[in-house]
Fold these 2 entries.
Entry 1:
Amino acid sequence: MRIGEIAGLVGITTRAVRHYHHLGLLPEPRRRANGYRDYTLRDAVLLARIRRLTELGLGLDEVRDVLADDAGREIVDVLEELDADLARQQEEIGARRERLGVLLGQARAGRMPAEGPVSPGLAELFGDMARASAALPGPEPAMAARDREMLALLETVVPEAERDRLLGSLREMARAPGAMERAYEVYAALDALADAAADDVRVEETARALAGLLPDDVVPDGPGDLDGWSGTVFFADFSAAQAAVVRRALRIAHERGAR
Amino acid sequence: MRIGEIAGLVGITTRAVRHYHHLGLLPEPRRRANGYRDYTLRDAVLLARIRRLTELGLGLDEVRDVLADDAGREIVDVLEELDADLARQQEEIGARRERLGVLLGQARAGRMPAEGPVSPGLAELFGDMARASAALPGPEPAMAARDREMLALLETVVPEAERDRLLGSLREMARAPGAMERAYEVYAALDALADAAADDVRVEETARALAGLLPDDVVPDGPGDLDGWSGTVFFADFSAAQAAVVRRALRIAHERGAR
DNA sequence: GTTGACCTTGCCGCAGCGTCAACGTTTCTA
DNA sequence: TAGAAACGTTGACGCTGCGGCAAGGTCAAC
């Protein structure tokens, strides 16, 4: 048989056959006078075994191991490991499909947030925001979108355990009567401070309003938390007045928490 | 932020961040005086979106598509396609695990055939052979192992539909009373002809015995089927007498089938 | 001053082949 | 009998999503 014939017989490509030669999985057969490889039925038998093994999901080096040792002992280990691996993959895919299903539900309903895929809990919070915003006159404050971005970032940043606690606090806050309306007032007030200086007279009252919204347990451990690079980065595209509001609000909330 | 800081914040590696730059997924940020990349919070937000999307299983070019068009329309298509893809993968893996489970059962019972993984039906046939052989005195004829190899090859070679029919015929044949014993007599007789010439006196009776075992529908369409290269390959390491037996048996079975 | 932890660009490697390229051989057809 | 189509040969690059290493430059701390 020539290479095309054996490949067609076994149901693989000639390229794969040569690849197996290259890897030493299949010994090079004798050559004809013209240099063509000349295969026998035994090669086909071997190739068929290789194909069956690879179709199970074994890597080519594992195939080589299995073909090499006739112990019949090691193959059990390889197969068990492979099965465990496949089981893990199945679970992973299942989890992904679950998240995907939620996202697809949002996306189909036209409620795919611009922030990209987020957890169900956060998606619900964003939905509440959308409803609250729709009930208010005028366009949504830019700061609201910024806040959602920050929350989406926060969600991917914090570890799992803390994430649930944090999300819980947020949703609890959002469910408080009138909280959404007050939040949107703060957003609007912050928008109004987009070009203001740090000593603007509106800073203090906006900070108080913001502090009134913050749950105690989403406040960082100390007000010094936003002083290092994280602070400069965090406020990178805030106006001086906006930054001042946030700093002041955190300080107020922190003092309140300390009492 | 420097690259290590943003990478740590978002939970990816610096290498990945640079990779995203290279692919144009994430715009290169400004550089500091020393050449270091200087990231902002917006970059972190973007990176977090990228991470969430890749964790869903999107490829990086799909991520780029999703990030690029704000239509919100295309993302539904991408997600649906992805979900369908994942569903297909799950089914594939499930099928593989099923086959693997059968194999593991065989392997754990020490009944892993030397021919490698085969279908449950063929495995059962091989099991019958093993039992029949164990009940007979002496070692198993080499031709029996050769036959199993051929059957395993045949199984991977023929298309699905025909495979089931063929396996059915084989198992029916194997269940006929005394068939296994007669088969092993033929194997032994063929072994005995390993060095014999084509005109050996034992050829005719062995061929008759073999023909008596063959179901009509596993006989090739015509006896000419084994005359081309497939014949020379098929008989490549048969002795002249063994080849003669098979040819004669096929002819007998074919004539019988024609009547 | 020197260590150690950063940063820079750039290139190789991975699995399992697909896909040219550039060329020789065989076989079918006009 | 010539030419084209369909095979074969070796060799090399491409794909995904980065990891890892090399050979430096930079910065803060001891």
Entry 2:
Amino acid sequence: MARLVEQRKDLLASMMRDGIYEAAVAVMTRYGMEGTTMDRVAEEAEVAKGSLYNYFPSKLDLLKFVHDKTVEPMEQRAQEILAEEIPALQKLESLIREWFGYLDKHRGLFNFLFNDQVARELLLDRKSSGHAKAVEDVATIVRQGIQEGTLRQLDPMRVAWLLFGAMREIVEGQLSNNETRPMINLTEEVLDFVLHGIGNGK
Amino acid sequence: MARLVEQRKDLLASMMRDGIYEAAVAVMTRYGMEGTTMDRVAEEAEVAKGSLYNYFPSKLDLLKFVHDKTVEPMEQRAQEILAEEIPALQKLESLIREWFGYLDKHRGLFNFLFNDQVARELLLDRKSSGHAKAVEDVATIVRQGIQEGTLRQLDPMRVAWLLFGAMREIVEGQLSNNETRPMINLTEEVLDFVLHGIGNGK
Amino acid sequence: MARLVEQRKDLLASMMRDGIYEAAVAVMTRYGMEGTTMDRVAEEAEVAKGSLYNYFPSKLDLLKFVHDKTVEPMEQRAQEILAEEIPALQKLESLIREWFGYLDKHRGLFNFLFNDQVARELLLDRKSSGHAKAVEDVATIVRQGIQEGTLRQLDPMRVAWLLFGAMREIVEGQLSNNETRPMINLTEEVLDFVLHGIGNGK
Amino acid sequence: MARLVEQRKDLLASMMRDGIYEAAVAVMTRYGMEGTTMDRVAEEAEVAKGSLYNYFPSKLDLLKFVHDKTVEPMEQRAQEILAEEIPALQKLESLIREWFGYLDKHRGLFNFLFNDQVARELLLDRKSSGHAKAVEDVATIVRQGIQEGTLRQLDPMRVAWLLFGAMREIVEGQLSNNETRPMINLTEEVLDFVLHGIGNGK
DNA sequence: CATGAATGAGTTTTCATTCAT
DNA sequence: GATGAATGAAAACTCATTCAT
């Protein structure tokens, strides 16, 4: 019985955290990192400021939560792709497509997720940032591709960084141009670039 | 004679500005943008807080100065390379090499120069951010390469973003790994990636 | 029930505002406008500096509040007097008496209300300064008196300024002499001066 | 001989003080009391800021000097008028005329001379403000007028305050209306008001 | 547990005054 | 004496965090 009460409590707390999460995302999207104050989050969440502290010990913890919660599903999906039994090239395409789809949602959080100093700082003490993990995933695929003979023998980590960066940048270009078309359409183009480069071969 | 006194004064002022610049860079490197307060800069520079305002009318002006002073020589160099009468591929290599050499100095400012939201904001009213300009430079080279037939017919701007991003990311990877070897060594590798991609040809 | 809670809150907020008002008046009286800092007000009110900003968005707003709260009842009263159906001379006497009574309270604020540049500036965007309004009120009475034939045909506005100034000055004289007798006793005398001047008739 | 050197020094110092005086007046007129900083005065005087302190130990001393130097000639003139052997009424008219003429010059300093808290504070330790002295002068004239039978038997000091206030206020009215016609034209009107009041006699 | 007022350290900026040159 | 850079004590305002109700 106490067990049941316990569960109910956990459930409620979890819902609260989610509500605050949504609010935080909204505020971050609207005001940017600098403008994200606990006041605004509380107001957006329609909760008293003090209540935030019942669910998150500090602002930093809230930010970490937002980060994790946003990155998590993407990482989940990446793991699934990695686990499939398909050629590296297909995995790569799936992953890129997935990323773009993911970034089409969360546009507002892009800076927070990838660029911002704060993000970086709050990740300092994490085992490994989503960012780094993503790069690692690519490296794994590259290794597979090399074994399969479909990819050149290059340093997998280096290649992963390059690939990831190319993708990230193009997203940023789109965002800074206020381009609203879905970024998922860029998948082919990016894949082409990554596989064949820009040189006109022989 | 008055001329000489004048010069001496300018020199001193210039030295102060440089000292403050150094201090600001140190603080930014150590504490990040968020943590860069005038207090800390003053302390680092071993000057009174008020003295900063004898050389920079506001914090924003100081930041602009730091940015310009850091970015300007690079832009200069880029223009020189663009103006040379050599094939696009050579320009590209020169540019990348230059960038890496440049980033080897200024490691601490990398985030300020390329990643930070604040940096972006304070550049909003500048002619055009160094970032955007750099991408534009690459696009120019790509256009030349396409005409020369050495580069594939791809959207030059898109390619520029991709290339720039790849490079930026690899730098970031190096930095976050606390890799201390000079980044300039990566030039070949990046160029190879960009030109041929990672696919194993046919 | 929620209604009750709401009311209690409003009441408390109102009390705080009043407390801060008192503190501000005390500080203004003691240190003058120049010396009225938010720090001092906070200290006087025995609240944290930050708390002031929970009740007044800015220092200017606090000053406006002080001004309004002090001036409003007087303006109210003036309007009542103007609206009465009595001869101009009676209105004039009433108004002057009211003013003196009013100034007997608020002695400390006299300079803030009538003399200070800052006060004037902060009233610039108000409908119309209490000062100007008071003069206007007198002019209205003078016009009535002229019509009734009890006052000479003089420029009403000019007369209003003269009258108002005479009164203001005498108050100031009293204050600077640290004269503590109620100023309301001066009503007759001022009225006599205003009506008959100091000349000995023919 | 040393005497001569001494004199030359005094003369130079005196000239410097006068130059700074002019500059201070210009700044006060242009920027108001709040905006009168030592920096601006120095710039206006085309002197280094530090030099100001060779001639005035502090800002307050400079302000006192400005005040005195501005008020002095007026007081001088008032004394002369008082000393003349003419009826009180004529003295009164002369004095008022003189005041208006005086205020026509020094418009920019009006607030500093008569209204400002700062002015008040810096006069606190003076034997007697120019303001108070002026009132005293009027009282003297009133006493004479009473003896001569041309003025009613009223409290001379009170009358002096009233008269002075009326005049001051009308000046202020002119200034706040940005009325640029010379105020000296108001002499008759004010005198009329003061002598006969606004009442329509019997 | 919810609330939101209270807190106060921290931020940018100003400016009278000092002092080495 | 002249200079003006250096100083640092205030000033207005912000906001993460606490805590009484």
